[in-house]
Amino acid sequence: MEIDDTARYRSIPWVSKLLQDESFITIPSTNREKKSSTEDNLFASTLKSDDTLSGCLTQYRYSPSSSAVPENIEEVRMFFTLGDGMNGYPGILHGGIVATLLDEGMGLLLTLRSNYKASNDRTTSSKTVTAYLNTNFLRPVQTPGVIVLYARLDESKENRKWKIKGRICDLENQILATAECLYVKSQSKI
């Protein structure tokens, strides 16, 4: 776990090819950093081990027709290195973890977009929460291994509701799982 995640993923041929796509910008996966607020503890602590999620790398892309500011981020791509400590069956990732990864990746897209507004609007006190997560399991997610998760903004309403679609693919670009998620702005402080 001490190897830099960027170097680790560049050493994997199929991932390295995707990382060369200059339309995506690579950033640290901040959900893997322990925070005093306990935010992100699931990914920064519980699921951060050699036999669970030993690595994660995040990329994002702006809408081709927009300016390059965070509120115009349209797509996120995350690479995960999966261990066998989250299996439901031998060699197969538990379905609940598949859904968790999809929720995390799709939520990160919204987080990256909203960071721009939050940093410029000190009155922002609400967070977004998952209203629903519809998941389709198409093929088993094999472990151990590396997967890629794609999340893309599908619809935005009244700056209060966001529909995001996601998918998890393997090294052969086979779609293993898909999801549609609705996030809503919480009316209470979280």
TrEMBL record:
Q: Where is the signal peptide?
A: none
Q: Which residues form the Thioesterase domain?
A: 91-155
The domain of life for this entry's organism is Eukaryota
- What InterPro entries does the record point to? HotDog_dom_sf, PTE-AB_protein, Thioestr_dom
The name on file for this protein is Thioesterase domain-containing protein
